[in-house]
């Protein structure tokens, strides 16, 4: 590790359980972030600031006026969100390699985008993408941190796909969820930021091996009361995604 890196990351290296080993794990990691909107706007600065070695940002959308109250890394209407996010990261931490992919995450590009990744972060806004990302992460052995926010509420869960742990399909069987989005239901900006920041923390924990990630726990945030609660869930033996391993 270079002297400049030791200085830049010194405040987290000082943590006894994190130390040099944790920082080196971050520097060696590649993280895929699917979605550079509200959640991504909180996830990306903290992962870049922490020193994740490579960030791959995937988003086919472009910035519009309705985004600015929560998607705080973007400045210019009409610009591709992935490109805008990449420029923000480069300015924040030039030592992070960032790849901007101006595409929607889909069945055709998913396997390639996940290639070589340590962890994937679900910052998407639709159920089709969430289920596809979950299935491909399971198949390719990539850990997943999933987050969502709508209205005054948010949620967070991690999936390591180890024996005995569940997947997103176990938690939310396809076709049984209500596909709400911010354009229809609205969202309070700081709620998205809180969930996204928590996602970044879970990614750092999963990469470094420090702490206990929210695996088999659904973390629920209520913005009106400012409180978190947790709900455990179990792997389903006949899950169409991860049931095959059992």
UniProtKB/TrEMBL annotation:
The chain crosses the membrane at residues 25-47. Coiled coil: none annotated. Residues 9-241 form the THIF-type NAD/FAD binding fold domain. CDD domains: ThiF_MoeB_HesA_family. GO terms for cellular component: cytoplasm. One of its GO terms (molecular function) is thiosulfate-cyanide sulfurtransferase activity. Belongs to the HesA/MoeB/ThiF family. Keywords: Membrane, Transmembrane, Transmembrane helix. NCBIfam families: PRK05690.1. InterPro entries: ThiF/MoeB/HesA (IPR045886), ThiF_NAD_FAD-bd (IPR000594), Ubiquitin-activating_enz (IPR035985). SUPFAM superfamilies: Activating enzymes of the ubiquitin-like proteins. It comes from the Bacteria. This is Dinucleotide-utilizing enzyme involved in molybdopterin and thiamine biosynthesis family 2.
């Amino acid at each position: 590790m270079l002297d400049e890196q030791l200085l830049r990351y010194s405040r987290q290296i000082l943590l006894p359980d994190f130390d040099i080993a944790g920082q080196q794990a971050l520097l060696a990691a590649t993280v895929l972030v699917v979605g550079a909107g509200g959640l991504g706007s909180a996830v990306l600065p903290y992962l870049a600031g922490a020193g994740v070695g490579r960030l791959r940002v995937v988003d086919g959308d472009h910035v519009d006026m309705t985004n600015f109250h929560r998607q705080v890394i973007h400045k210019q209407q009409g610009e591709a969100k992935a490109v805008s996010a990449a420029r923000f990261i480069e300015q924040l931490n030039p030592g992070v390699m960032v790849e901007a992919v101006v595409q929607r995450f889909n069945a055709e590009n998913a396997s390639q985008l996940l290639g070589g990744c340590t962890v994937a972060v679900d910052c998407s806004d639709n159920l089709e993408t969430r289920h596809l990302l979950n299935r491909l992460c399971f198949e390719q052995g990539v850990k997943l941190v999933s987050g969502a926010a709508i209205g005054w509420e948010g949620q967070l869960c991690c999936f390591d796909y180890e024996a005995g742990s569940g997947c997103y399909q176990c938690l939310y069987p396809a076709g049984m969820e209500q596909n709400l989005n911010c354009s229809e239901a609205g969202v309070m900006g700081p709620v998205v930021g809180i969930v996204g920041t928590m996602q970044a923390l879970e990614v750092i924990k999963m990469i470094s091996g420090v702490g206990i990630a929210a695996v088999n726990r659904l973390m629920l945030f209520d913005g009106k009361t400012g409180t978190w609660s947790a709900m455990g869930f179990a792997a389903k033996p006949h899950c169409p995604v991860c049931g095959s391993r059992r």
